[in-house]
Structure formats: C-alpha cells, structure tokens
Amino acid sequence: MNKVSEGMNYAPKGKAQPVVKPGEFVFSAVRLDHGHIYGMCNGLTEAGGTLKYVYDQDPKKVEAFLKAFPQAKPARSEEEALEDRETHMIAGAAVTSQRCALGLKALSAGKDYFTDKAPFTTLEQLSSAREMVKKTNRRYMVYYSERLHVEGAVLAGYMVDQGFIGKVVNVAGFGPHRLSAGARPDWFFQKEKYGGILCDIGSHQIEQYLYFAKEEDGQVVSSRIANYSHPDYPELDDFGDCSISGKNGTTNYFRVDWFTPDGLRTWGDGRTIILGTEGYIEIRKYVDIAREGQGGNHVFLVNGDGEKYINATGVTGYPFFGQLILDSLNRTETAMTQAHAFKAAELCLKAQAQAVDLTPGIPDRK
Q1: Which CATH superfamily is domain 148-317+350-357 in?
Q2: CA-to-CA distance for 363 and 96, rounded, in angstroms?
Q3: Rounded to a whole number, what is the largest CA-CA distance in the chain?
Q4: Domain with CATH 3.30.360.10 in the chain
Q5: Going edge to edge, which strands form the sheet with 89-93?
Q6: Residues spanned by CATH 3.40.50.720 within the chain?
Q7: CA–CA distance, 276 with 293 (Å, rounded to integer)
Q8: Which residue from 48, 90, 50 is spatially nearest to 69, judged by alpha carbons?
Q9: What is d(CA 45, CA 260) in angstroms, rounded to the nearest whole number?
C-alpha cells in the first residue's frame, strides 16, 4: 500500500515560500514515532526553516528520515538537540502519551515546541503544559494537519473570514481513516498510549470547529466510542462521534472511524461542511469519489450569488508554517494562539473521557 493510501504517512509537499533566510530559524526533529514528523518538517523547511539535528532511539528511523532530509545531522542524544543554542524549536512526533514530557523538556530548555496531534492523553498533562508555558513564555504548538496542511481547508478559512457564508452556526466534520493495522506500531493499539479515537483523530475535528466557528470555548454535549470490528485489538476505538455546543451558541458534530475500505484510492474521505447564516461550504479534502483523475482540495460554495466549485490545489499554499516561524522569532500569535491549541486539546480529552462505549457485548472497556 503506497503512502497516499496511509494517513500515518500523510506528508504534503508544497512550494517553497521562505519567510526567513537560511540559518535565521533553526529547528530540530526529536522522536520519530509517527510519520507526521515528515509533514511537519516539510512545512517548516519550505517556509525557510533550517533543520539542524534529528534524534530518535531507533537508528533505522533516523536512517529513513535522513533520506528525506539529508541536511539534518544525527544528534548523539536527545539532550544534544534540546540544549543546542542555535535551535529555536523542537519538532516532535513521539508516542502520544509521551508528547507532553518531551514538550516540557523543550520549553524548559528555552525552545518552542511543535508536536504532532494529539498533544496530550490526559488533562493532567494539559495542565502541566499550561503551567510551563506560563512559566517560560515559550510556545507549545500542535500540528493539526487536517486543517493546516490541506489547501481546501485553508481556502475555506479565507472564505469564512471574508463573510462569504455569513456567520457560521454549525460545523460538521467527517474523518474516516484507513487502519492499515499491520503497519502500525504496538503502542497505537494501547489506549493509555494513544489516548482513544476522540483524543487522537478527533482532535483534528474539534480544532477545525473552533477555528471555523470562531469559538474560544465549548461544552461536550455527548460523545460515543466503540470497537465494532476489531476484537484482536480490544483497546482500539474504531468508531467515535461527538456533539459540542460552543460558548457563542454555535454547534458541532463530528464522526471519526477506522473503516476506510481498501477500494478507496486514498487513506480517508475526509469532509467538512460549514453552515453559515447566508450559505454553506463543503470541503472534500483528499478525494472526490468515483471521479477519475481527481485528487483532493475540492471546495464547494453555495450562497446568495449561486453555486461555485474551486479546486484549491496550488491556490493557497500552507501559510501556517511561515507564520509559525515568524511567531517563534517575533513572539507573536499569528499562526495559532496558544489558547486555541490548548482548548482543542482540552475538549478532545473531555470528549474521550465522558464517551459512552457502544462496543457490542462489552458495556464499558475503559
């Protein structure tokens, strides 16, 4: 199965759009447990970042990483990268339950931190990160790739900001993924380590809702999880859904699952529907099914002016990464506020914690 078919290896490449000169922003990659580290490093290097060190305990992972990023230098230890005076930011894709500990080390060492989602598996981890951010004034940023690294989602954000559909009142998200169980590491199936489906891939959906609806807070109204079809992996949630009410009165529903069939040519038919008071937008992120030659980034707009379709591929680029670099250098919050990154994490943790388990024959697996 090729990498396009596997979400864990989703690593988009865009046009180089540097916002700094070589050497002005240095970052290092530490912990390569998830393939998203490649997308994270692609985005930062395309925006002008200089990748200095790479470190992982597994030399095979380092060897594979160096084939993609030969400019990186293998660090002799994690500390060598964390304590390097030139390094502004640590990018990491550790085992989910270990991401917070790495982040605390990075912030304590005076570095900003850019982690794969989900950034935490417990509310206690989130609390410790909030305290460390306050103490150090460093950033704990999160790679919510299903918005940040999808041009269709970037374009939809511009449309919302420009009032094309009026005030957003509801966001519905659908995040199916292909499991590819045989290619996954053991930790992926251990709930203590991956956090559960609403904590994991559900974090994308909640972050998008907060962003598109311009919400700063919300309440989980209901959430459900299940293991419908994978008894060999009893701690896996292969299905989850959730409903949220925002502080400002907007609403959100999302569904995530591991049931993408092998017949789909990509890893998941991710979609988002944004309803406004004057129209709506649908994003078909990765595929438009049954249409040959069609990739992703399909954006459909309906409002008072009529119906419009835009293929956003090559239209917007990925501005988040350049903004993140400049935020790190200038101590601004253009790419994403710290409050937003943490609120999305908080709500996904609460959704997972209070979820009703619908697994047949097992009333409660938690």
Answers
A1: Dihydrodipicolinate Reductase; domain 2 (3.30.360.10)
A2: 26
A3: 60
A4: 148-317+350-357
A5: 73-74, 50-55, 26-32, 89-93, 112-116, 140-143
A6: 3-146+319-337
A7: 31
A8: 50
A9: 31
> What residue type is 163 in one-letter code?
G
Q: What is the mean pLDDT for each group of 10 consecutive residues in the chain (366 residues)?
A: 48 78 98 97 98 98 98 97 97 98 98 98 98 98 97 97 98 97 95 97 98 98 97 96 98 98 95 98 96 87 97 95 98 98 98 96 61
3-state secondary structure 266-282: CCCCCEEEEEECCEEEE
Asked if 166 and 278 count as a contact pair (C-beta separation under 8 A), the reply is yes
User: Of 176, 121, 187, which is closest to residue 146 (Cα–Cα)?
Assistant: 176
Burial pattern 111-123, b for ≥16 Cβ within 10 A else e, equals bbbbbbbbbbbbe
In the structure encoding, which two tokens stand for residue 301, read together? 């707009």
> Contact, 199 vs 121, CB < 8 A?
yes
To the question of domain 3-146+319-337 being in CATH 3.40.50.720, the answer is yes
